[in-house]
Amino acid sequence: GSIRGLADAVFSSDAGSTEMSLDQGEKNITFSWTNPDGITVKKVLTFRADSYLIHCDIIVQNGSGMPVNDAIRIWVPGHFNEDVKNRSRFAFEGPVAYIDNNFSTIKPKDIEDKDTYSGVVAWAGYTSRYFLTAVVPDTPEAATLKLSFADHVVTNRLVAKMPRLDPEKQNQQSFTLYMGPKSHKILSRYDNLLKKSVNFGFFDILAKPLLIAMNFIHGMIPNYGMAI
């Protein structure tokens, strides 16, 4: 991109230590970096004690004498070896996205033939059998997914175009990060489309109501054997 040195940037943090404990409320951590041209990039992460969601504001301040035309790239990697490949035959594991109003899975073996997808992205990430990592734009937006697969690591990159940033101006783009269980009950609490990641394919129309009913019964009788 046009921000020199960003690919290898080392950000500094305003955190007081390398560990953070949050029992209630919320807390912000800001990571900052300034390049030799005077362009400052800040990443402000907001953690909440009662949520798996992490809000992320990316702020670019143009202290240079030239306009900046660039894009924000957020990487979501996942480990994919032969064992994971064999498991995913029964329950998909790999890159996923909700793009153009559709839930999409991308098989790692297909990345070599097609590594770029464009459309209106509600979220993009990586799913394992029980957990999901995803990045969610504040509002679904036209963006590009750029994927790679090497050394047993699949990387799903959300690339969002940044508006032209003139000298002495500032731009902010906001995202939400999710790193937690792939639970329909938990994901349904959030005002976004992440619950679409719990997908049963052809059986979705039958399985979703049954899953919701089972969770409801389990809430009254905390025994999954009885709920089933």
Question: Mind explaining what this structure looks like?
Answer:
The model has no long low-confidence stretch (mean pLDDT 89). Strands 1, 2, 3, 4, 5, 6, 7, 8, 9, 10, 11 and 12 form a 12-stranded antiparallel β-sheet that branches. It contains 4 helices and 12 strands. The relative contact order is 0.15. A hairpin with a 4-residue loop joins β2 and β3 (39-48). Helices cover 14% and strands 44% of the residues. The chain is mostly beta strands and 228 residues long. It is globular and about 65 Å long.
Question: How is the topology of this model organized?
Answer:
Layout: E1 12-13, E2 26-34, E3 39-48, E4 53-62, E5 71-79, H1 82-87, E6 94-99, E7 102-105, E8 116-127, E9 131-137, E10 141-150, E11 153-161, E12 170-181, H2 184-187, H3 204-220, H4 224-227
Antiparallel strand pairs: 1-2, 2-3, 3-4, 4-12, 5-11, 6-7, 6-8, 8-9, 8-10, 9-12, 10-11
Coarse structural class: mainly beta
Which shape, going by the Cα principal axes? globular
Number of helices: 4
* Helix share bin: 10-25%
Strand content: 35-45%
Calculate the mean pLDDT score and round it.
89
List low-confidence stretches. Answer: none
Largest sheet: 12 strands, antiparallel
